[in-house]
Design brief:
heterodimer, A: about 525 residues, 21 helices, B: about 100 residues, Helix Hairpins, 3 helices, membrane (chain B)
């Protein structure tokens, strides 16, 4: 009881740097407002109002971010909200990346031209396969709750990459995951697959969060605090129990690697990517990847930099497994969305190489390289899923690879853009994918991970085979007579695909600007 | 009684939960096992708070409870919707997505 009284007297209100966390506040505030609008507006007005609010929020938050980033601010960053949120250069870079990628994803989510009424079910409560379900599939109108859900997920991601203690990180992890679980289950067509994806993602995601949380508890027991810097200090040389430290680290990293879809914790990825509505898949593939690796980078460089020689071997092995799984299983896929999912597992392996590229002197050359790679990969993926949503037949998207045969004869432009994006995923020069791989691999060599880079190059070569297989299929096969058609996209999808493809090209030709920006600072410790 | 026993109990409960997730078939039971894991973590957080002589761990346990409650809302909604479709909550029946 004395303890309680003593601690209660110490509590004082924390200082809040509102300028620094303004982007976060804008996104989360707008998410709450969006929920209210959903409750108050009549059905026919919701889509337009929600869309304007969501896009306006993203622009506003980006504006606040630019304003803060260009103003007078401490070079090493600030920790605000009693040290719970660290706003430093990598945070700002990741926030900007997340906001711009979310802009592209929201455009895909809002599109109503490709699928009349949008890719989302009109009412999630309608049972699949019933008369009402067949009626909703052709009727316009969609469940506009996806907009607030997207904003909440984005707010969670932004908090996740900036969180400076493990408890904030856990809460942010849940805030980003829970809306995503729901969004996976809202497809307008193939509802059974969509619901199944939601159940799988939810059960496995909750399982992984429990591991993450147990890791947090053990690290709290080890260090007496969940602040990343306190864990680093505690690990720097004490007689505390190493069991707690390494058990905690292992469990924590399992949770993080699950979210980042790194093999062997990738088992949910192909199923969820295939079953979820394609715009949501784009959002997950781009933004969740950025958020998860942002978190991994911060945890590894801030909290566990001192102990890198103990854990480096383990993550080394995980990166190898991830690249091999992604590249080899990707070869056997017959569905475009599953193929891109396995490609994302392979890319997660490359990203992990960048994340563990720490030098003994305490510098982290991999951080800026990984940040660049995340940005480049996100844009390419969003555009690729945008293209996937265009190839359709009478019952929705035609994702089976055999249906893509001869696509170039039906639509040279779509096939051309998709070819370019696949080459970027494969890492061919003049695309952002090449520059991304180049900077990550050079950072890894600088950190003494040359054998890993060799394995990564072999994995890239194997992965290039399945990208090229799609290209060959599109250009050198005859189209089937009852094959799918390529929908002419409306403005939103066109903008999203163009944005993704142009950024992929521009970063392939002039990457210096973004590379400089990614390398401006290090994590606040 | 030393606090270590509570840590061991918490590890035991966590393991029971983890094994339950892996072997049980019913989605609801799987989900309950996840909740068991979260509550096992709560027990160790509170025990560590006691060992460390600070209240942080107890406060964290409250955060975990709130998060677990939010997770129940979302999880039961998802499991309900698939149960209404299939008249079954068995995770083995959800097998359309593979290879």
């Amino acid at each position: 009881m004395n303890l309680l009284v003593a601690q209660a007297q110490q509590i004082e209100a924390p200082q809040i740097d509102y300028g620094a966390i303004a982007p976060l506040l804008v996104v989360l505030g707008a998410a709450c407002m969006s929920v209210l609008l959903e409750a108050l507006l009549p059905k026919h007005q919701r889509w337009a109002v929600q869309l304007v609010l969501t896009l306006g929020t993203l622009v506003g938050a980006t504006g606040a971010l630019i304003f803060y980033a260009t103003s007078e601010r401490p070079a090493q960053g600030v920790a605000t909200l009693a040290g719970a949120i660290a706003v430093d250069s990598p945070s700002l870079f990741l926030w900007a990346t997340l906001l711009v990628l979310a802009f592209g994803s929201v455009l895909l989510i809002a599109d109503r031209s490709v699928e009349p009424g949008g890719a989302f079910v009109a009412q999630a409560a309608i049972r699949p396969g019933t008369i009402q379900d067949r009626a909703q599939a052709t009727k316009t109108g969609m469940q506009t709750e996806v907009f607030p859900l997207t904003l909440f997920a984005l707010g969670g991601m932004m908090t996740f990459v900036a969180s400076n203690d493990l408890l904030t990180m856990f809460v942010a992890l849940e805030v980003l995951s829970l809306p995503l679980y729901l969004m996976c289950g809202l497809a307008r067509r193939r509802r059974l697959l969509s619901q199944e994806a939601a159940v799988k993602y939810f059960l496995l995601g909750a399982f992984a969060s429990a591991f993450f949380l147990y890791g947090v508890a053990l690290l709290y027991g080890y260090a007496g605090s969940v602040k990343l810097s306190a864990i680093a200090t505690a690990a720097a040389g004490t007689d505390r129990s190493d069991t707690l430290l390494f058990a905690g680290f292992g469990l924590l990293v399992v949770g993080l690697l699950f979210k980042a879809a790194v093999g062997p914790f990738h088992s949910w990825t192909p199923d969820v990517y295939q079953g979820a509505p394609t715009p949501v898949t784009a959002f997950m593939a781009a933004c969740t990847k950025v958020a998860a690796f942002g978190g991994i980078l911060r945890v590894l460089t801030v909290a566990f930099e001192n102990t890198q020689w103990e854990w480096r071997g383990v993550l080394y092995g995980v990166a190898v497994v991830s690249m091999v799984i992604g590249a080899v299983l990707g070869l056997t896929q017959t569905d475009v969305k599953r193929m891109i999912a396995y490609s994302s597992v392979a890319h997660a392996g490359f990203l992990l190489i960048g994340s563990i590229a720490l030098t003994p002197e305490g510098t982290a050359p991999g951080v800026s390289a990984t940040l660049f790679y995340l940005l480049a990969y996100g844009f390419t993926t969003i555009a690729a899923f945008g293209i996937v949503s265009l190839v359709r037949n009478s019952d929705g998207e035609a994702t089976h690879l055999s249906q893509w045969a001869g696509l170039a004869k039906r639509s040279p432009i779509v096939a051309g853009v998709f070819t370019f994006l696949l080459l970027a995923l494969a890492g061919i020069p003049l695309t952002s994918g090449f520059i991304g791989k180049f900077v990550v691999f050079s950072a890894a060599i600088e950190a003494g991970l040359a054998p890993l880079v060799v394995i990564a190059l072999v994995a890239s070569a194997v992965a290039a085979f399945f990208y090229l297989r799609v290209i060959v299929l599109m250009y050198f096969s005859e189209p089937a007579p009852d094959g799918p058609t390529v929908t002419v996209p409306g403005a939103f999808t066109t903008i999203a695909i163009t944005l993704g493809a142009v950024v992929t090209l521009v970063l392939g030709l002039w990457p210096t600007f973004v590379l400089d920006w990614a390398g401006t600072g290090t994590f606040l410790s | 009684m030393t606090p270590t026993y509570y840590l061991l109990l918490s590890a035991l409960l966590f393991s029971i939960g983890a094994v339950g997730v892996l072997v049980r078939r019913n989605a609801i039971v799987v989900f309950m096992c996840v909740e068991l894991m979260l509550n096992a973590v709560n027990l160790s957080l509170v025990t560590f708070a006691r060992i460390n002589g600070s209240l942080d761990g107890q406060v964290m346990a409250f955060f975990v409870m709130v998060v677990a409650a939010a997770e129940v809302v979302v999880g039961l909604a998802i499991i309900m919707s698939i149960f209404r479709t299939r008249r079954s909550a068995s995770v083995d029946d959800s097998n359309l997505l593979k290879y």
